[in-house]
Amino acid sequence: MAKKLYVVGNWKMHKTARESTDYIEALLSKVKTSQINIYLAVPFTSIAAAALYAKDTNIVVGAQNMNDAREGAFTGEIAGLMLKEAGAAFVLLGHSERRHSFQEGDALIHRKVLRALQDDIQPILCIGETAKERDAKKTEEVIQKQLLSALQDVPKENLKDLLVAYEPVWAIGTGKTPTPKEIQAMHAFCRECLATILGKQAGSIPILYGGSVKSENVADIVAERDVNGVLVGGASLDSKIFAAIIQNIAGATKASKPRRKRGKK
Ligand code: PGA
């Protein structure tokens, strides 16, 4: 059986509610596959309209961030339960722009992961090294630390909902990407770390790649054994380009070999 893949569009601070529904309408007219989980991380104000429009389709709408508290005196913040009520099924956590432009640290991201799981919103935990860390040959150390801090004490029964996205910071929005082999090696490393932190069940946690994914490079990336999909920023903003990415993933899924079970190397 071919592996089930995810494609997540991260719109960042783009698209009003109206633009979101126009986009979803256009995307649905272009995408013919139901084999791929299509997720859209939209701005808070577009969640309700987008989720309603995407109801009964294979598009899943989610958010790009949330607060770690259930509720409280946190002016300007959004709680998981509010996102859920608006129609968000998942939330990006620890995206590099949150870590670096909004100074979110590992401890806060850990609390957000726990809160999302408690509030029944699927967390997509984003991790990745900066160019400086990579040049200093600290990539594995950084990834291990980010995974360990975010996922320690996560209740095992909730693990089925978790997704991880490996996104090297230097690849985000730059047009630079690691080679598919380098991506595979990092995903295999993430899997090992997940197994150490979470035990056997870690083998089934989907690990996505993010950072300058385009329609031209996506097929080679998702063909790698430990890549379960992609997180797409800039190239998800145009429904035509995003549809081409989805179609190329579908093509690659048909061509790719099934993933070997862990422990059966
Ligand atoms: P990019 O962004 O595809 O524009 O590099 C990826 C992301 O921010 O998740």
Structure characterization notes:
- By secondary structure, the protein is α/β, with parallel strands linked by helices.
- The chain is built from 10 helices and 8 strands.
- An 8-stranded parallel sheet has the order 3-2-1-8-7-6-5-4.
- The longest helix is centred in the last third of the chain and has 19 residues, at 180-198.
- The protein is globular, with a radius of gyration of 17 Å.
- Bound molecules: 2-phosphoglycolic acid.
- The site of 2-phosphoglycolic acid (PGA) has 13 residues, from β8.
Widest sheet: strand order? 3-2-1-8-7-6-5-4
Q: How far apart are the termini?
A: 18 Å
Whole-number radius of gyration?
17 Å
Low-confidence stretches: 257-265
The helix/strand order is: EHEHEHEHHEHHEHEHEH
Task: Let me know the average pLDDT.
Answer: 93
- Helical fraction equals 40-55%
Number of strands: 8
Report strand %.
Answer: 5-15%
User: Ions, cofactors, ligands: which are bound?
Assistant: 2-phosphoglycolic acid
Number of helical stretches of at least 4 residues? 10
Characterize the largest beta sheet: strand count, sense, and whether it forms a barrel. 8 strands, parallel
Given the C-alpha coordinates, what overall shape results? globular
Structural class comes to alpha/beta
